[in-house]
Amino acid sequence: xxxxxxxxxxxxxxxxxxxxxxxxxxxxxxxxxxxxxxxxxxxxxxxxxxxxxxxxxxxxxxxxxxxxxxxxxxxxxxxxxxxxxxxxxxxxxxxxxxxxxxxxxxxxxxxxxxxxxxxxxxxxxxxxxxxxxxxxxxxxxxxxxx
Length: 146
What we know:
It contains 6 helices and 3 strands. The protein has 146 residues and is mainly α.
């Protein structure tokens, strides 16, 4: 029986509360399955590993492909999955919120949103607004699904 999204998220939270843990980065479904069988307690996607497995540079994968990849890794494992979501593939807080909501809908237990636009760090106030938008999207999506 597959582990529910809510159970995966609760397990991921418990891992953080308990201290340090190793979070390996599968780049495809096969590596996710192997890492689960090796006994890891959670997984995290890798934007570079995913892109390189497609013959592309890190950062050269679009939103739809990233979301599909997240869903495949989530569905391949009973472990919680954290996504390397680069800069949420967006600059504006509204677009970050939209994309984070879509990412959370794939069943992720967590995700990271970088404050790097690809050429420079975001200005402080914009970076804060992006994080706030991401958090609000997570709260909206999580309360709607679980």
